[in-house]
Amino acid sequence: MQEPRAQALLEVTGVTVRFGGITALDGVSFKVMRGTIAGLIGPNGAGKTTLFNCLSRLYGFSEGEILFEGKPLTDTPPHGIAALGIGRTFQNLALFRTMSVRDNVMLGGHARSASGFLSNALRLPHVQREERQLGARASQVIDLLDLQAVAATPVADLPFGTQKRVELARALMSQPKLLLLDEPAGGLNHEEVDGLRLLLRRIQSELQLTMLLVEHHMNLVMRVSDQVIALDFGRKIADGTPAEVRENPDVVRAYLGVEA
Amino acid sequence: MDLLIHQVLSGLATGGIYASVALALVMIYQATHLVNFAQGEIAMFATYLAWTLMQAGVPYWGAFFITVAAAFVGGVILERVVIRPVENGPILSLVIVFIGLLVIFNSVAGWIYSYTIKPFPSPFPTQPLFGNTYVTSHELGSAGVTLTVLLLVFLFFRFTPLGLAMRAAAQNPVSSRLVGVRVGWMLALGWGLASAIGAVAGIMVAPIVFLEPNMMGGILLYAFAGALLGGIDSPGGAVLGGFVVGVLENVVGVYLGTELKLTVALVIIVGVLVVRPAGLFGKVHVARV
Amino acid sequence: MDQPPVSSVTPPAAVPAKLRAMGTRQLLLLGMLVVVACVLPFVLGNYRVFQLTLALAYAIALLGLNMLTGFNGQISLGHGAFYAIGAYTAAILMDKAGFPYWATIPVSGVVCLVAGFLFGLPALRLEGLYLALATFALGVAMPQILKHKSLEHWTGGAMGVVIVKPDAPEGIPLSQDQWLYFFTLAWALLLFWVAWNLLRGRVGRALVAIRDQPIAAQAMGVNTAIYKSLTFGVSAFYTGVAGALGAIAVQFVAPDSFTIFLSLTLLIGVVIGGLASISGAIYGALFIQFVPNIADQISKAAPWAIYGVFLILFMYVMPSGVAGMVKMLRHRLSRSK
Amino acid sequence: MSSPLLQVRGLHAYYGSTHVLHGIDFEVRQGGITTILGANGAGKTTTLRAMCGMVRTQGDIILGGDRIDGKPTESIVRMGVAHVPDGRGTFLNFTVEENLRIGAYTRKDKAGVQADYERMFNYFPRLRERRRQQAGTLSGGEQQMLAVSRALMLQPRLLLLDEPSFGLAPRIVQELFEIFREINQASGISMLLVEQNAALALRLADHAYLLETGRVVISGSAESIRNDESVRRSYLGY
Amino acid sequence: QAKYGPGASAKEIKLGQTMPYSGPASAYGTIGKVQQAYFRKVNEEGGVNGRMINLLSVDDGYSPPKAVEQVRKLVEQDEVLALFQTLGTPSNSAIHKYVNAKKVPHLFLATGATKWNDPKNYPWTMGFNLSYQTEGAIYGRYLLKNKPNAKVAILYQNDDYGKDVLAGVKQVLSGANAKMIVAEATYEVTDPTVDSQILTLKASGADTFINITTPKFAAQAIRKVYDSGWKPLHLLNNVGASVGSVLTPAGLDKSIDIVTVQYYKDATDPQWKDDPAMLEWRAFMARYYREGNVEDASNIYGYIAAQAMVQVLKQCGNDLTRENVMKQAANLKNFKQSLLLPGITLNTSPTDFAPVDQAQLSKFNGKQWVLFGDVIGGN
Ligand SMILES: Nc1ncnc2c1ncn2[C@@H]1O[C@H](COP(=O)(O)OP(=O)(O)OP(=O)(O)O)[C@@H](O)[C@H]1O
Ligand SMILES: Nc1ncnc2c1ncn2[C@@H]1O[C@H](COP(=O)(O)OP(=O)(O)OP(=O)(O)O)[C@@H](O)[C@H]1O
Ligand SMILES: [Mg+2]
Ligand SMILES: [Mg+2]
């Protein structure tokens, strides 16, 4: 039976991160409900990417707690995050540059496969099976993101926008429950952003995904999000529906500027 | 106790050798982000040049400066002619070229000058300073020379636009071109300066270890270790690292025997690096996403 | 934007053509190569067969080093140390424990696997030059360790250990050299097959991913620490097996056989053969086995200078190694068709 | 009408054997701002790279009367061309200050450099706060500010901007385009702008070109392009 | 009626050797070169019994596996009559079994290990040098006789050579006398200096110093001993006793009273300046090996060994089989070579495979080595 209150998939409480004298995150708390898209906005250097890095366990945090599905993340090593069901893309692209698009995507499935050194070395039947399954799923994701034409190209040779899509494909390949997207619309023109918006919605509903979306493209954030959280100087300054946040005077002053 | 003091001082003296070569390694690292394994052999070859000049009657300082200048030019030419064709290749291809240069210099020096050791003069007085038997005046003098070179290198990187441009070129050639830095010439300049520093090192080392084609072979490893221990991007750290390696090696030799002193010294150095992966004074460069 | 529905459940049975499987042409080529390799010992003299045996052992070592350095991006300037450990393990087992030669090979490999793995653990913290120094130090220190008096009883100190060359099993009409060649060839084929398996699947992708972008690899679920140290271990396994095979062929081990130049030679072989290429190991092995002899024939005065010039010229002509060159030529050829 | 500062005729560009630009023509007026629009992968970045010798090209590129095609990048830069590359090209191991100093490497006027230094910090106060921080640890947007500042430090004649608003917060984007306008008007620096926010770009620019798979398909004044039906649909969204 | 084994014919006698022309020991490559030069001279003068000597000298980089490969090439492909002066203990150890199995004369190895004198088990292998152990034993006996209460400190190279000399010393200073050795230190050839080792040895309170080092380190040690104010009885091994390439760089004044063991003349010692044998050698060097360094003792050593080889081939007459070569090699009777010290001759027999087993002590007087005592050794 469903609980009366929808369960939060992600619960961030009082997270604080410091780098020397800089406080990149300052007691940030929020929740993201299962099956929703939450937008995360804020001026440059507000701490959005830092928060993602905490969720990936790339950064430690001095105070606070992050619960994913009710369990603290700190019990999991960085390489265990994907298996928990948190997938991500990177703001500044972090692709495997010499590998083909297809291999990049296949690697995204690493956490959803298990064969090890020995069984790979002997290419046991279950390894072959696993490879086939991964391969088929990679093909689906590649189709979904319209990357068929460049599947065999090394990613370093692709234009920026395409590389961003490869990142998304790679993240989807890990079948995440929570997808962290760091500026997925960077380098896309208007029409392409619109496409992305539809895509995100579709992925979200069909895969029952929850998303946390960092984006400076207001049009996208406001239209796609169920909830928007705004940070400034590492502090949360607003949290609510897109309409609420858009009107929030602090957000307007710090982030949107006069004519948002 | 007396032995320990002696050993520490003697370690500082050999450490001075490592420090001077380590400095040349740092120089080339700043300019190329690579460690040139042929650095020691280049220094050795330059020292033979100085020796030849002195044999021909050129006075010490004349030979010194001619050699340093020639090493600079030689370094520049080496970069432009030998290194340039592989400049943009994979790093390991460059390493292979370095190994190639190493064996060429070593072998050609042996061929031209033969392998018998040659005494090499020191510019410093032969009488021990203050009548002590701890360190010779040459050892003191060459440490002084190393520190002077260190100061110059430090000032160069810290305060001149050229120094900045050189570091920029090593770090990000594409962006460097976009701000107008002539990347190719920066590399050549780096090679030139590193060779010149190497020549100074060789000339200071030769009176201690005697001049012969393999004189830098063992030193290079210690210098490499010293440079990394101090932090490969820190000239001061590298010099200090060189001294530390010298002392460490001696102290290990006294207390744990000479047979494994190299091994133990290296284990300690690597151990320190495991704890401090950027060396004692190296800047930790954070990679973030 | 109308894409097919996304589904996370098991894919349809129809799978696109296996991209990474070998084409028939390649299989044919490989088959031919194996046939040639099997015929060679019958047309060449014993001394040549011996040389090829050494080259095969080198190829195995290079493959191991290439996994580590080429595929996984961990530079090792000290793999000669593992070659030495493998060689000594085989020699000591045969000399002191009476092991038959064939039984020493896997043991040598496993000893090196463990040694490599253990060395790889602290090495995790070291990157780039720092790792290069640590491995270089290992390579420099190994001969000294081997001749240290505490091990002298086993290693024979500076004098080394002499071992007996095995005969072909009863009933097989092969000379010692021919037999050892086939024995080594069998190991090489096995280990190349294993490497190929390892590198084309999940593990291989992870290795390259770690090299290209370790942070992202980790975020995708790759346990970089385990992968890197295991790769170190596997790489040492290969090199150790090669060392054992080489030692049996040479019938002798001594500290002077495993100086730092061996480590550098292995690195040269990997780069000349072609980084991150399986076939490169063969090209590289042929280079390090035969080119020094050529240099020696050109000049007694300074054979090293000639060798050095060869190295530099090779890098000019083939900056990405022989394998890179072959790949490029094949690419060109298929394009011009 | 003043003569063009940058004139490009029949430009082809290649990556290895991949042919990316197929003979394009365009120009940037003296003191003008030209923008290039195009879909993902159309060749915009390649066009900018071609302007400063970063890719193999064929065809004429003329800067203020001098042919610059085939010249090495650093020579072109020394002729007064600054480039804000895609991916920002930050010197990751340098501090913010060092990044700015290297930006002014070709300049000899110490006083002017010092003044510009302050000017950049006034444009982007965030950078002042971070002046001694290792640039690699800056946030994406902060690095973008740094990339623009670094290019401005060169005091160029022609500024090549590859998606300068990339990763910047909306308020900063507005300010940035104000800065461009101001610089353009005050010092007459010409600009060649690639920008996904087409509305902003077309507001700033006087001329515009639309690129499709390496060919110019539409060109004209910014005004006329803004009213073009297909541009409106794909790039402006109304 | 002439008899020919492999590698020999009416016109030619093929010999083979491996040398470290490349690699860490390339300093010794000159031995191979001087020998090639010497055979060129012999051939120009008509060869040996009318046959030309063809020495195939190949590089092994001082690496045992390479030596095995090269020797197999020489034996199996080039089919040399005999191997001559292959250099280095490790390389020769690696081929020891093989050449004996193949019954190829393995003559006059350029290494001083004692194990080459083992005709019973290895009838095809014969060393050449005064063995390192013999030399060490001479120092030991010298001390027992002249300084029985000595406190001895020893520095040695950490390899087969150093350990062999050390073994010789210990062979004599054994039992109750083992206490005489109060300190030992080693160095590696890659060490930049041995200063630290000298300080440690000095601190042991020793009054006698046995210096088992190669030229560069010998010079460093002599200098450091002097500079540190240590005044021991200094016994320096023959390898490092060249006046020109060791004592002069170290400082002649710092070398006074050093004692060594010698068996051939030092080209850089002024006392042999006008020695006829030395003049002849210099003329040879000038004519046939100009690029060779006359200060390098290896060039004398190699020359002597080559002459011994020619002597063996002469004795073979027209019976150039491997068996006869071995037989003649084991039949050197008081072969006098004028670069050997006066009174020292080469002798072998079927039970004695050590051609050089005599030597003489000498002491440095600041200018030259002064021989003293009798010729030691001999069977
Ligand atoms: N490793 C680090 N060392 C020092 N400072 C850091 C480090 N990582 C981040 N910072 C600082 O923390 C602040 C937050 O950075 P973060 O990348 O989270 O910003 P952001 O909100 O993602 O900004 P943007 O929208 O520009 O990407 C920045 O001011 C940055 O300079
Ligand atoms: N290094 C490279 N090697 C090979 N092909 C490349 C390379 N860089 C770009 N290309 C190809 O050139 C074409 C144009 O790329 P370019 O980067 O100029 O596009 P763009 O218009 O800037 O796209 P974006 O909006 O994504 O930045 C693309 O098809 C791309 O695949
Ligand atoms: Mg960010
Ligand atoms: Mg672009």
From TrEMBL, chain A:
<dbReference type="InterPro" id="IPR051120">
    <property type="entry name" value="ABC_AA/LPS_Transport"/>
</dbReference>
<dbReference type="Pfam" id="PF12399">
    <property type="entry name" value="BCA_ABC_TP_C"/>
</dbReference>
<keyword id="KW-0813">Transport</keyword>
<dbReference type="InterPro" id="IPR032823">
    <property type="entry name" value="BCA_ABC_TP_C"/>
</dbReference>
<dbReference type="InterPro" id="IPR003439">
    <property type="entry name" value="ABC_transporter-like_ATP-bd"/>
</dbReference>
<keyword id="KW-0547">Nucleotide-binding</keyword>
<dbReference type="InterPro" id="IPR003593">
    <property type="entry name" value="AAA+_ATPase"/>
</dbReference>
<dbReference type="GO" id="GO:0005524">
    <property type="term" value="F:ATP binding"/>
</dbReference>
<protein>
    <submittedName>
        <fullName>ABC transporter ATP-binding protein</fullName>
    </submittedName>
</protein>
<dbReference type="InterPro" id="IPR027417">
    <property type="entry name" value="P-loop_NTPase"/>
</dbReference>
<keyword id="KW-0472">Membrane</keyword>
<dbReference type="Pfam" id="PF00005">
    <property type="entry name" value="ABC_tran"/>
</dbReference>
Automatic annotation (TrEMBL), chain B:
<dbReference type="Pfam" id="PF02653">
    <property type="entry name" value="BPD_transp_2"/>
</dbReference>
<feature type="transmembrane region" description="Helical">
    <location>
        <begin position="6"/>
        <end position="27"/>
    </location>
</feature>
<feature type="transmembrane region" description="Helical">
    <location>
        <begin position="262"/>
        <end position="282"/>
    </location>
</feature>
<keyword id="KW-0472">Membrane</keyword>
<keyword id="KW-1133">Transmembrane helix</keyword>
<keyword id="KW-1003">Cell membrane</keyword>
<protein>
    <submittedName>
        <fullName>Branched-chain amino acid ABC transporter permease</fullName>
    </submittedName>
</protein>
<feature type="transmembrane region" description="Helical">
    <location>
        <begin position="185"/>
        <end position="209"/>
    </location>
</feature>
<feature type="transmembrane region" description="Helical">
    <location>
        <begin position="215"/>
        <end position="232"/>
    </location>
</feature>
<dbReference type="GO" id="GO:0006865">
    <property type="term" value="P:amino acid transport"/>
</dbReference>
<feature type="transmembrane region" description="Helical">
    <location>
        <begin position="60"/>
        <end position="78"/>
    </location>
</feature>
<dbReference type="GO" id="GO:0005886">
    <property type="term" value="C:plasma membrane"/>
</dbReference>
From TrEMBL, chain C:
<keyword id="KW-0472">Membrane</keyword>
<protein>
    <submittedName>
        <fullName>Branched-chain amino acid ABC transporter permease</fullName>
    </submittedName>
</protein>
<dbReference type="InterPro" id="IPR043428">
    <property type="entry name" value="LivM-like"/>
</dbReference>
<dbReference type="Pfam" id="PF02653">
    <property type="entry name" value="BPD_transp_2"/>
</dbReference>
<feature type="transmembrane region" description="Helical">
    <location>
        <begin position="99"/>
        <end position="121"/>
    </location>
</feature>
<dbReference type="GO" id="GO:0005886">
    <property type="term" value="C:plasma membrane"/>
</dbReference>
<feature type="transmembrane region" description="Helical">
    <location>
        <begin position="50"/>
        <end position="68"/>
    </location>
</feature>
<feature type="transmembrane region" description="Helical">
    <location>
        <begin position="230"/>
        <end position="254"/>
    </location>
</feature>
<feature type="transmembrane region" description="Helical">
    <location>
        <begin position="260"/>
        <end position="283"/>
    </location>
</feature>
<keyword id="KW-1003">Cell membrane</keyword>
<dbReference type="InterPro" id="IPR001851">
    <property type="entry name" value="ABC_transp_permease"/>
</dbReference>
<feature type="transmembrane region" description="Helical">
    <location>
        <begin position="27"/>
        <end position="44"/>
    </location>
</feature>
UniProtKB/TrEMBL annotation, chain D:
<comment type="similarity">
    <text>Belongs to the ABC transporter superfamily.</text>
</comment>
<keyword id="KW-0547">Nucleotide-binding</keyword>
<protein>
    <submittedName>
        <fullName>ABC transporter ATP-binding protein</fullName>
    </submittedName>
</protein>
<keyword id="KW-0813">Transport</keyword>
<keyword id="KW-0029">Amino-acid transport</keyword>
<dbReference type="GO" id="GO:0016887">
    <property type="term" value="F:ATP hydrolysis activity"/>
</dbReference>
<feature type="domain" description="ABC transporter">
    <location>
        <begin position="6"/>
        <end position="238"/>
    </location>
</feature>
<dbReference type="GO" id="GO:0015658">
    <property type="term" value="F:branched-chain amino acid transmembrane transporter activity"/>
</dbReference>
<dbReference type="InterPro" id="IPR027417">
    <property type="entry name" value="P-loop_NTPase"/>
</dbReference>
<dbReference type="InterPro" id="IPR003439">
    <property type="entry name" value="ABC_transporter-like_ATP-bd"/>
</dbReference>
<dbReference type="GO" id="GO:0015807">
    <property type="term" value="P:L-amino acid transport"/>
</dbReference>
<dbReference type="InterPro" id="IPR052156">
    <property type="entry name" value="BCAA_Transport_ATP-bd_LivF"/>
</dbReference>
